[in-house]
Amino acid sequence: MGCSVLMWYLRLEHVLKFFAGTLLEKQIVVVCSNLGILSASVLSVISLILPYQWQSLQMLVLPNGMLDFLDAPVPYIVGVRNKTSEVQSKLSNVILVDTNKNQVSCFSAVFRCQ
Fold it and tell me: Quick one: average pLDDT of 24-32?
């Protein structure tokens, strides 16, 4: 599947924001209700940043019981099935890639999505 999943579900400008956030080692949360698309989206960043390698944490699907992990002070790329109120409350310094709505939102003062 690779990057084709991202191109199918996100506009090019959103893919580029996802790419830039990854290269800048930001905290990235990918939201999608479909597990296959969610996993493929999180994994596709590996092929996007070649020849570079992602050296930090990458979780295809973050279980609901581990949502406290979103407060971690390290770079990560994490997949979440639903953007619940608990997830929303933890998005203080995160790039949110929502493949359901074809949106990328930034909750960071340093990295601007506009």
Answer: 94
**Nearest residue to 44 (alpha-carbon basis) of 99, 16, 2:** 2
pLDDT-derived band at 106 (thresholds 50, 70, 90) equals confident
| Amino acid in position 114 | Q
pTM value? 0.90
State how far the Cα of 99 lies from the Cα of 104, in Å rounded to an integer.
8
Q: Is the peptide bond before 75 cis (omega within 30 degrees of 0)?
A: no
Q: What residue ranges define each of the domains in the chain, with the CATH number in brackets?
A: 4-106 (3.40.50.11500)
Answer for the pair 28, 44: CB distance below 8 angstroms, yes or no.
no
